[in-house]
Specification:
Shape: globular
Bound molecules: adenosine-5'-triphosphate, magnesium ion
Number of strands: 5
Helix content: 55-70%
CATH architecture: 3-Layer(aba) Sandwich
Number of helices: 8
Distance between the termini: 14 Å
Amino acid sequence: MGLLVAIEGIDGSGKSTVIAKLREIMPIYATKEPSDGPIGRLIKEWALKGGTSDPYIDALLFAADRLDHYQREIAPALKRGLVVVTERYVESSIAYQGAAGVDIGFVEAINSKVPPPDLTILLDLDPEDAVRRINARSAHAEKYERLEFLKAVRAIYLRRAAERGYVVFDARERPEALAERIAETIRAKLGLGQR
Ligand SMILES: Nc1ncnc2c1ncn2[C@@H]1O[C@H](COP(=O)(O)OP(=O)(O)OP(=O)(O)O)[C@@H](O)[C@H]1O
Ligand SMILES: [Mg+2]
C-alpha cells in the first residue's frame, strides 16, 4: 500500500534540492505543500504574502490544504503502491504555526484527519546558514524566513524529532550524500514492511 515519507526542515534547509536528487536514484512520487490545489494557491498567493497576520488562520488554511492534498493526490498515489515523498507535512504546521504562537494541541487536532507519515526525515540546519542560502537564492524573503523565527521553528522540530524518534540528518552535507542516506532509510523501511 505504498509508503508516505515526509521531508521536513526550515526554509533553505535543502528539501527541494534533496528530493530532486532522490528522484535520480530511486522511483518516488514527489509532491509538496502548500499543494497546487485551490487552497494551496490561496496560501502561496495570499497568506504567505502577508494576507493575514493571524497564525490561527494560517494553521487552518494549511490543515485544509493538507487534507485536500492528501485526498486528491497522496492517497491515490499510495493506493498505486508508490513511495510518496512530500516536501512538508503535519510537522511543518506544528513547527511553524507553533513558533508563531498557535497551541500545538490545536494544530494536531485540525490535522487529525490525515494519517501520520510512515517516515519523517528532518533536515537540520542552523538558521544562520539557511538564511545565507535563502539570500543567495533570492533577495525577497517570505514572512516565515526571518532569523529569530526560524530559530524557534528549528527548536520545535528538534524537540519533536527527539520525542518521536524522527530521522535527523545534518543538512550541511552534500545533497548527493543526503539523498543517498534518505534512500537507504526508505529502503530499510520498505524491507521491514515485507517481512
Ligand atoms: N546540501 C546543501 N548544501 C549546500 N547548499 C544547498 C544544499 N541543499 C540546498 N542548497 C542550496 O540552498 C538553497 C535552498 O535549497 P532548497 O530550495 O532545496 O531548500 P528548501 O528546504 O526546499 O527551502 P524552502 O523551504 O524555501 O522550500 C538553494 O539555493 C540550494 O541550491
Ligand atoms: Mg523547497
